[in-house]
């Protein structure tokens, strides 16, 4: 874990804010934020000034001594957000057939992502926030690119962007970068296949892969529209994504299957791992065994001395 973390911070700090710069963080709410928060806190400890953009209605984007939280209004309530996430989470624990799982996963995912779209649209239309960003002169955007609001703002501010990413069902990191992703060897999301597939599994894997492009268009076309309106020019969203300086991928080939990646993609799969600690009862038991062995050895030595 130390090696992964060291690599992560070296890449982040190799940007132009080495001596305590200004970092704009545009996260995704929910479990995505838990991973990013650990990095943000570490960067804060190193002296960087950090601002986190967060909707007024959120799940986990709370205040902290490590950063300044800049809030913006959104057109939904806390109750609605909690309700949608509750339905989304419960869907993952229902055992259904594979085709049904694909349909229900898509439905529950879109049910949540609709709120995130309203979230992004509200942020881009908030003149006070945009004026604040213009005046703040940030050095870099640190964002989760699962949804493109941070990508759009990095383009608007004309500053480097660092992506902190775990993955998404439509294979965003490969779709937008044109990175090879062979279906014969790279199992698709939710298939539970390995990199050694039978012919039938490869056919099904190809079928799931064929759904990624329409899913990508369904998810991101409306973001492309608001990006064009916000940037006041025609926008090709994958091109904006390709402007990212570094992709920090929160996985590695210990639990994932090998696949091609682009040169600016760095694996930091151990970033959420902590060094294991001995359980107190195990530690006490081991200490007791050691003490008993030492005592037994001392008694044996004394007996040998008396015999001689």
UniProtKB/TrEMBL annotation:
Keywords: Glycoprotein, Glycosyltransferase, Membrane, Signal, Transferase, Transmembrane, Transmembrane helix. Residues 1-20 form the signal peptide. Gene3D superfamilies: Glycogen Phosphorylase B (3.40.50.2000). It comes from the Eukaryota. InterPro entries: UDP-glycosyltransferase, UDP_glucos_trans. It is found in: Membrane. GO terms for cellular component: membrane. Its EC number is 2.4.1.17. GO terms for molecular function: glucuronosyltransferase activity. SUPFAM superfamilies: UDP-Glycosyltransferase/glycogen phosphorylase. This is glucuronosyltransferase. The lineage of its organism: Eukaryota, Metazoa, Chordata, Craniata, Vertebrata. The gene is LOC115659799.
């Amino acid at each position: 874990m130390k090696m992964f973390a060291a690599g992560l911070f070296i890449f982040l700090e190799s940007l132009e804010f080495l001596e305590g710069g200004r970092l704009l963080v545009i996260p995704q709410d929910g479990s995505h934020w838990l991973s990013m928060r650990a990095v943000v806190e570490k960067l804060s400890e190193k002296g960087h000034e950090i601002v986190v953009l967060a909707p007024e209605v959120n799940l986990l984007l709370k205040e902290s001594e490590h950063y300044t939280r800049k809030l913006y209004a959104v057109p939904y309530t806390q109750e609605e957000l909690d309700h949608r996430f509750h339905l989304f989470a419960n869907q993952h624990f229902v055992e259904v057939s594979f085709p049904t799982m694909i349909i229900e996963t898509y439905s529950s995912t879109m049910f949540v992502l609709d709120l995130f779209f309203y979230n992004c649209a509200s942020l881009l239309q908030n003149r006070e926030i945009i004026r604040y960003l213009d005046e703040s002169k940030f050095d870099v955007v640190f964002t989760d690119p699962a949804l493109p609001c941070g990508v759009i703002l990095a383009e608007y501010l004309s500053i480097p962007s660092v992506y902190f990413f775990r993955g998404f069902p439509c294979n965003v990191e490969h779709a937008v970068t044109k990175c090879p992703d062979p279906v014969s060897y790279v199992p698709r999301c939710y298939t539970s296949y390995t990199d050694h597939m039978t012919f039938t599994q490869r056919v099904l894997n190809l079928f799931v892969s064929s759904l990624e492009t329409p899913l990508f268009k369904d998810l991101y076309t409306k973001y492309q529209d608001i990006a064009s309106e916000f940037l006041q020019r025609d926008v090709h969203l994958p091109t904006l994504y390709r402007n990212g300086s570094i992709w920090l991928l929160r996985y590695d080939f210990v639990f994932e299957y090998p696949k091609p990646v682009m040169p600016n993609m760095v694996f930091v799969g151990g970033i959420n791992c902590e060094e294991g600690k001995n359980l107190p009862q195990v530690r006490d038991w081991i200490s007791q065994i050691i003490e008993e062995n030492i005592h037994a050895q001392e008694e044996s030595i004394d007996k040998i001395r008396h015999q001689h």
